[in-house]
Every structure is written in C-alpha cells, then in structure tokens.
Design goal:
about 180 residues; alpha+beta; six-stranded mixed β-sheet; three-stranded antiparallel β-sheet; 9 strands; globular
C-alpha cells in the first residue's frame, strides 16, 4: 500500500518534505520505519514470515511487525498502527520499549532502494493474544523460544531477512534482560 511519509536527511532529521513511499524508495530518499519485536514473559519471540508478494525478501522470516512511519506520525504512533494492521492487536504505545535506531541503506534494484532510519522497539505480549495477520503483508506468524530463534539465526540465516547476526543477538539479549 502506498502512503505519504516524511523525508529525512542523511542524519535522520526531518527535511519538511513529504513523498509517497513508492517515490521515496524509487529515488532513495531517507525516511523512518519501525520494527516491533513482540516477546512473552515465558521467553518466546513472535516472528513473521513476510508475504509472498513483498518486493523485498518475500517469504523470509523477520521481526514481529515492521512498517513505515506515516507523514506526521511519531515512531510510537506508527508502531501502534503497524501492530494493529499487521497482526490485529491494539497495543498501549506507552508500553513500547525503545531499543535503538538503525540507519539502513540497501539497494534492491534500480527502482527500489531502502534508505531508512528504523526505530526498534520491544513489546511484551501474551502468547495467547489472538493474532490476525494482514494477508497482503504476512504469510505466517509463529512464536519461537529465544533459544530456537538464536539457533536458527546462527545455523540457517538464509531463512531470515538479511540482517547482521549481531543485530539479532542484540534483540535476543535485550529480551533476555527483561525476563
């Protein structure tokens, strides 16, 4: 789905410009995104398998929820909206746990370039919370123990969206520190 997003400079600061997401990707303009890693008190993490029609990394396993921050939205508001859209859960944005902001630059093709600042959050979620996946975005949702996730990342990184293994380890360590 195309949407309006704020354009950032190379340092992640607002430029005052707004563009369609598709144009920002086409031109390689910096913009803001969110990643929300949902975890449970029992030491599990919710992962999503990206939809088969995604332009980038179709059918790869990824963060619980990911998406673009809309024009005029705060990272927290964008995160709350994306969680509702992708997994059908209404969250309390005050309970989002900021982890880091990561600058990403990845060119997939001449007409699709991700240049983004990803606001990464943790969110504690009950495993029994009913989930409703967004059909156009998400193929599958599944809870993994942290040990399973850590093992899969180290042994079979081809099943995941390409990230540095250190980034996954950082998320796992942050979740473990909250248990």
């Amino acid at each position: 789905m195309d949407e309006l997003i704020d354009i950032l400079d190379e340092n992640g600061k607002q430029t005052g410009k707004v563009e369609l997401k598709s144009k920002a990707h086409q031109l390689g303009l910096f913009h803001a995104t969110v990643h929300i890693w949902c975890y449970s008190k029992t030491g599990k993490v919710l992962l999503q398998q990206r939809g088969s029609d995604k332009k980038a990394n179709p059918l790869k396993w990824d963060v619980s929820v990911a998406g673009h921050i809309g024009a005029g939205e705060t990272p927290e508001l964008g995160a709350s909206r994306e969680v509702q859209e992708e997994i059908g859960v209404t969250i309390d944005s005050k309970k989002l746990q900021p982890l880091t902001i990561i600058k990403i630059e990845k060119k997939y093709s001449e007409r699709f370039w991700d240049r983004e600042f990803t606001h990464t959050f943790l969110y504690e979620l009950e495993e029994l919370t009913p989930l409703t996946k967004q059909e156009a975005e998400v193929e599958t949702l599944e809870w993994f123990t942290l040990q399973e996730f850590e093992k899969l990342v180290s042994e079979d990184d081809k099943m995941f969206v390409p990230n540095s293994e250190n980034r996954y380890k950082e998320v796992i360590a942050a979740i473990k520190s909250r248990l």
